[in-house]
């Protein structure tokens, strides 16, 4: 089966940084940008230049140094926003202005306090102005999934006519289910007369824990750009997780026959750098990059992994840059204890292994997990005891 190209739009440095606790200074953003370039994304959204002078400067520095991905900057459909973003992106070898305006009646009436006609006029003006800086213009309809369908189609057609090359229709508040997202994009692509002239993009938030599922449903409906972040960070509950999107296509090519250029072996390294910079740790059970993602404590699981790791691992840990771990705890079995002892350089007979195993489990009952130093201390003590008993005999 041939595979379609799926473009990965990383917005860690923009939407991700907007989440509480994840703010980065210019040096930190540049450091992370270098690693995201190594990771191999198609588009790197470097920031929101109008937000502050520092953010504009950071976007400018990233645009000057990072050469492999397209460098994008966010701007409202507002002349000052677009001018600031366009100027910040001037050093980029390949620049994209990502301009947006809300399209749901709720946002138009309660937040922006403008009419639908005003919105359409702003779309035309914003995209046209952005095209004065670059041929690569992305338009986003904020709160698209809660917008009136007929009006949203008019907005999308207007943006394409004005020169947008990518159309992003975000689930801004994480409101949809996968079935709804798929139907939504199929209907948009069917009703918009000039839909074949652009790439459609999805940007899903995780308020109901469905961001990745919704993103993949959108891809199934013909979307070919996914906007996502490292570790799934972002506003409120976050964005779709970049690492989960990428690895889903690698593990399930029969269901998700799409190719990305991401170097998956850099996923864990990138995740770790983000946590180091922000001092915000990843939850232990986070898919792919959490410390327990490839860790096994239960004896049945450990025995299976020792014999053939495919029994409990659907992908190779090294494919995302980590190693499988057998955690010694109160649920561990003898096979795992024996393997860890062998890895530490100990050869135990059956009697010694039995005693070491019992002591490991007893210690785990007291302190949850057992370290390599703990294992070494137990083995040394048991072997010394056995030697002493033999000498006394």
Pick out the low-confidence regions: none
Give, in spatial order, the strands making up the sheet with the most strands: 2-3-4-5-6-7-8-9
What proportion of the residues is helical, as a percent range?
40-55%
Rg over CA atoms, rounded to whole Å, is 26 Å
Backbone structural class:
alpha/beta
Overall description:
Helix 1 packs antiparallel against helix 10, helix 7 runs parallel beside helix 8 and helix 11 (299-307) crosses helix 12. Helix content is 46%, strand content 14%. The mean pLDDT is 94. The chain is built from 14 helices and 14 strands. An eight-stranded parallel barrel has the order 2-3-4-5-6-7-8-9, surrounded by eight helices. Strands 1-10 form a two-stranded parallel sheet. By secondary structure, the chain is α/β, with parallel strands linked by helices. The longest helix has 21 residues, at 372-392.
Secondary structure topology:
Layout: E1 4-5, E2 7-10, H1 26-39, E3 43-47, H2 53-65, E4 70-76, H3 79-88, E5 95-102, H4 105-112, H5 116-131, E6 137-142, H6 149-162, E7 166-168, H7 178-191, E8 199-203, H8 211-220, E9 225-228, H9 242-251, E10 258-259, H10 267-278, E11 295-296, H11 299-307, E12 325-326, E13 328-329, H12 334-343, H13 350-367, E14 369-370, H14 372-392
Parallel strand pairs: 1-10, 2-3, 2-9, 3-4, 4-5, 5-6, 6-7, 7-8, 8-9, 11-12
Antiparallel strand pairs: 13-14
Helix pairs in contact: 1-2, 1-10, 2-3, 3-5, 5-6, 7-8, 11-12, 13-14
């Amino acid at each position: 089966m041939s595979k379609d190209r799926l473009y990965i739009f990383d917005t860690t440095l923009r939407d991700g940084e907007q989440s509480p606790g994840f703010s980065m200074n210019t040096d930190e953003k540049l450091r992370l940008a270098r690693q995201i370039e190594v990771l191999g994304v198609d588009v790197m959204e470097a920031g929101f230049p109008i937000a502050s002078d520092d953010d504009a400067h950071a976007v400018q520095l990233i645009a000057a140094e990072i050469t492999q991905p397209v460098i994008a900057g966010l701007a409202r459909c507002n002349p000052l926003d677009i001018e600031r973003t366009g100027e910040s992106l001037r050093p980029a070898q390949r620049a994209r202005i990502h301009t947006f305006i809300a399209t749901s009646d709720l946002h138009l009436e309660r937040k922006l306090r403008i009419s639908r006609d005003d919105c359409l006029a702003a779309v035309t003006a914003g995209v046209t102005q952005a095209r004065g800086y670059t041929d690569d213009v992305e338009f986003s309809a904020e709160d698209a999934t809660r917008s009136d369908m007929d009006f949203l189609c008019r907005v999308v057609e207007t943006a394409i006519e004005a020169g947008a090359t990518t159309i992003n229709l975000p689930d801004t508040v994480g409101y949809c289910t996968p079935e709804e997202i798929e139907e939504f994009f199929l209907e948009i692509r069917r009703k918009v007369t000039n839909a074949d002239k652009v790439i459609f993009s999805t940007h899903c938030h995780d308020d109901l824990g469905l961001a990745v599922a919704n993103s993949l449903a959108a891809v199934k409906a013909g979307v070919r750009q996914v906007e996502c972040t490292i570790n799934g960070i972002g506003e409120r509950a976050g964005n779709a997780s970049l690492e989960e999107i990428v690895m889903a296509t690698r593990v399930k090519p029969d269901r998700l026959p799409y190719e990305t250029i991401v170097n998956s072996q850099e996923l864990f390294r990138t995740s770790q750098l983000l946590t180091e910079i922000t001092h915000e740790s990843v939850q232990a059970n986070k898919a792919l990059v959490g410390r327990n993602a490839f860790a096994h404590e239960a004896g049945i699981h450990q025995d299976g992994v020792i014999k053939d790791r495919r029994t409990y691992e659907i992908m190779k840990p090294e494919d995302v840059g980590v190693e499988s771990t057998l955690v010694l705890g109160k649920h561990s079995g003898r096979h795992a204890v024996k393997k860890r002892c062998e890895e530490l350089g100990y050869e135990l007979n059956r009697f010694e292994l039995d005693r070491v195993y019992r002591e490991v489990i007893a210690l785990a009952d007291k302190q949850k997990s057992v370290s390599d130093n703990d294992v070494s201390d137990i083995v040394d003590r048991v072997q010394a005891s056995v030697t002493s008993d033999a000498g006394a005999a």
